[in-house]
Amino acid sequence: MRIFESSNVLTRSLALTALVFVAGFAVAGEPGLGRPAAEADIAAIDISIPPDGEGLPPGSGDAVAGKIVYDAKCASCHAMEGKGKPADSLVGGIGSLGSGKPVKSVGSYWPYATTLFDYIRRAMPLNAPMSLSNEEVYAVTAYVLSLSGVVSGNQTLDADSLPAVRMPNRDGFNDRSGVR
Amino acid sequence: MKKSIDGNARELAAAPRVAANGLIDRRIFLQRSVAGGLALAGGMAGAHAASVGDGAQPWQKRIGAPMSAIGSPSKFVEGRMQRGVLKPYGAIAPGTGVSMTPLHELHGTITPNRLHFERHHNGVPDIDPDQHSLTIHGLVKRPLKFDMAALLRYPMTNRICFVECSGNSFFNTFPEAQALPAGMIHGLVSCSEWTGVPLSILLDEAGVDVRAKWIVAEGADAATMGRSIPLSKAMDDVIVALYQNGEPVRPEQGFPVRLVNPGYEGNTSIKWLHRIKVSDRPAHTKDETSKYTDLLPDGSSDQFTFTMGVKSVITRPSGGMTMGSKGFYEISGLSWSGAGRVRRVEVSADGGGTWADAHLHGPALDKSLTRFSIAWNWDGAPVQLQSRATDDKGRVQITRAQWKSGYGPGHVYHYNAIQSWLVNDLGEVSNAYL
Question: Where along chain B do its domains lie?
Fold first, then answer.
């Protein structure tokens, strides 16, 4: 026991020393080894799209165009019309979340349409991520949302209309981050 | 030297029982010399043989293997020193799934790097560190780009902490208890000494705007995994980790650089870190909305539930093991809390009817795996073993029934309920729901 206790004290004092050491550097503005990041370089990698749509690219697409892309590049995993298997189901379950058999899908669970655009653009299709054009991503997003009836079959999605799409479970989340 | 096994057995038999079914006061080995006596018993044989060689083992009488550049486990245990790999989508998504630390084969608290659990969302990228960099931008005065050579020059901090996947122990959310070993149920937690640059130093260098409240961290894998993290956490104890247990972070753990967010669900400790956007709001990425959120019975979901719960699991004995003869055993296990230190672990051998305090092996570090043990005299009859952890914030591990009642059907994240192991009259140990 004594050994453990004394090593505990040692650990604490080492941690304190490290803090002081590290803080010393920060105050002095050193090491200062980061290089200025150019705006163009940032723009090339800043692909995050929050719910208000900030950063959405030019372009547009609708479900008709999206179905062509979907059937060719997505249906092999998500099945025709987004019914799922082997990969996640994209449709169904709207209104089921509080039932004894909740079904989570894009239509029933995802709170923001921007997240769907963001995720398809960065990570789908799984075997060729980042291969779709922005137009194709808008179109596939429109098609997937149309499968759940969240957008109509002929609605065009772009940087203005996508953030305005209201998902069925938009108000279904309780923010537990404590950030105010 | 004269102390016999029988003598020790008598001493154990006389030791104070502190809970039902043979649990022995945790201080027994601190008060008495039972352990030392057990180890010495039966010594002496061979001391008077004609040649010492006669009594020696073959490996004492020939030159052993030479030095080697890389060590490996004994061939006698190597087959068991393996992660358990699960690929839920099979061949269509070979890089999507988990591999689990074999907790039941390990002891101590530090996970060997080769056995640290994995959770990937589209495989392990093969990153050339000379082509990799970390960009910090958004609500900062000076957007900055750090190449690896620069990051490696920064003052570094060391800390030991666990990383636990939010989906750890998901098998125990299933309706029927799965016949699996401890590592396959709970092995999405591992513990390492992480070394790297405090994220706060890099953020300070970039100059965080007063409006900022969040960072969005992103990896350079084929999922371009992104998570939003409160700025307060980022400025507190988050590490831009370059080393794990002394060696460069391995590819499957985020080479050349990853985040380590002590105590937070593992998914936020972004591997292959290449970008941090400072923001006044979260990004609501796919993995913080459609996944890693907690469905409640009323159909709403809790979001941004970062801190991992207080938890413990007995690793020896545990599922799939078979007891030897009745008599003395040490029950041993792991405990941890994302909110702080483990303050107490209790063990029950009668399914939660009576509890005894286990010994906590120090140092019980903040947000780290902590080893506990308790002496036990098994009388050969069926028992139900459980452990229950309490952390220094006063949080106590709950039962499976309590946990299940708090979430919607089918929920799998943040499972931290009490694990029950059933030992039957044949000594076979299995996962059980009580």
Answer: 129-292, 311-432
pTM, to two decimals: 0.91
- Quote ipTM for the complex: 0.90
Interface contacts (A, B; CB < 8 Å)? 190
- Using one digit for the tens of pLDDT, what is the confidence trace for B316-362? 999 999 999 999 999 999 999 999 999 999 999 999 999 999 999 98
Which CATH superfamily hosts domain A39-158?
Answer: Cytochrome c-like domain (1.10.760.10)
Cα torsion angle, B29, B32, B38, B40, sign:
positive
Task: Mark out the alpha helices in B191-335 (DSSP H runs).
Answer: 199-206, 231-234
Nearest to A102 among B284, B306, B409 (CB): B409
Q: Is-contact B273 B134, C-beta < 8 A?
A: yes
| Euclidean distance between CA atoms B30 and A61, whole angstroms | 73
Out of A25, A42, A174, name the one closest to residue B135 (CB).
Answer: A42
**CA angle (A101, A102, A104) in 5-degree steps:** 145
Chain B interface, best mutation among A4, A130, A179, by max B CB count within 10 A: A179
CATH superfamily of B129-292: Oxidoreductase, molybdopterin-binding domain (3.90.420.10)
**Domain spanning B311-432, CATH architecture:** Sandwich (2.60)
Distance from CA of A136 to the nearest CA of B (A): 18
